[in-house]
Amino acid sequence: MPLPSVIELSSEFIKIPSVSRDSNKAVSDAIQSFFVDNGFEVERLEYIHPEDGQQKVNIIAKKGQGKGGFGFFSHSDTVPGAEDQWAAFEPKVKDSKLFGRGSCDMKGPLAATMLAAAKVDSSSLKKPIYVVATADEEHGFYGVKQVVAESKLFAENWPDMGVVAEPSELVPIYSHKGGYWNIVTAHGVAAHSSTDKGISSNFLIAPFLAEMAELKKRFMTEEQFMDKQFSPATNGFNLTMTDYGCAGNVTASKTTCFANFRSMPGVDNKAVSKLIVDRAKHYGFDVEVQGHEPFYTSPESEVVKLSLEVTGEPKSITVPYGTEALVYGQKVPLVILGPGNIEQAHTVGEWVDLGQLERSVDIYETLIRRHCT
Question: Which of 217, 275, 291, 372 is a good FRET partner for 6, with 20 to 30 A between their CA atoms?
């Protein structure tokens, strides 16, 4: 059976809604069928999302034998379609663009990796190819965490280099920012405000918020908190908070502040987090810290150099947004390399340039042939 075009395969996936709040089973079934029909070994991992209770599916496909190899890492979930504003799940080609939810982020790039791997005959491989499609990249990274922890195929062997196929306009990306979430909670006593018997958690947390405003100024001006590999070079420190819908005539019994920043490889991120945590503990607040260190592959690494040779780009770059490379990068040297512009991702009218989408298949196939045959 002849392979579909990348436009046809991308369109097939776009037609199958897989918004993160829902199950991605249907699109995963289609992805698995493609791999089975094209002679891949397939591993299917399933789980129930701990927050929304939906069934989620990860697909790992392998072709070839041996140690090392090349991995392609994508996700099959998307952000909500905003169907009231456009035909999100009806793919359309117009003006050399493919429109539809996930065309750019990242069913189009996923389809390109699948076709590139399918085009390489297994008899020519000296090292294996892996292609992965996870759930919940847009909703907590639960899929990639399961793949890393439970995949039997990867337990046998991890590839020695790979690509996360997120949109980069086919320019190799060697690093992106991570993120830390410092969750600070103050507890008060609820009472009707007319009695003066309550203790407002909002007032309790106010001095801490004032200190965070001053800390923001430091983050924006002191070079110890910056990494000039990035634009912007600052950590995007941000505060949001909630008193859980407390009524205006009641003293709040609980207020939670989320003090978040983007981690960077040239900064001591744990020290940054400690500045926040220490001040919260000074006031006796509860503190929880979650987060990821940034993704970083040396620009001198083999995978970066190979990607530059194949794409013809003069240099690799950094970006401020995040991908599953935060997790996979702990196992495999990676670059981010995919068709499309991240500014199109998550938008109403999302699209991917057809020239880039088609060229990406050739680039991925060349990477395989250069490294695995």
Answer: 372
Per-residue pLDDT of the chain (373 residues; tens, 9 = 90+): 799 999 999 999 999 999 999 999 999 999 999 999 999 999 999 999 998 899 999 999 999 999 999 999 999 999 999 999 999 999 999 999 999 999 999 999 999 999 999 999 999 999 999 999 999 999 889 999 999 999 999 999 999 999 999 999 999 999 999 999 999 999 999 999 999 999 999 999 999 999 999 999 999 999 999 999 999 999 999 999 999 999 999 999 999 999 999 999 999 999 999 999 999 999 999 999 998 999 999 999 999 999 999 999 999 999 988 999 999 999 999 999 999 999 999 999 999 999 999 999 999 999 999 999 9
Where in the chain is CATH 3.30.70.360? 179-292
DSSP 8-state code for residue 250: B
> In sequence order, what are the residues at sequence separation of 6 or more whose Cβ sits closer than 8 angstroms to the Cβ of residue 120?
63, 129, 365, 368, 369, 372, 373
8-state DSSP, 344: G
Fold for domain 179-292? Answer: Alpha-Beta Plaits (3.30.70)
Which CATH fold topology does 6-176+294-372 show? Answer: Aminopeptidase (3.40.630)
Q: What is the pTM of this model?
A: 0.92
Stretch(es) of the chain classified as CATH 3.40.630.10: 6-176+294-372
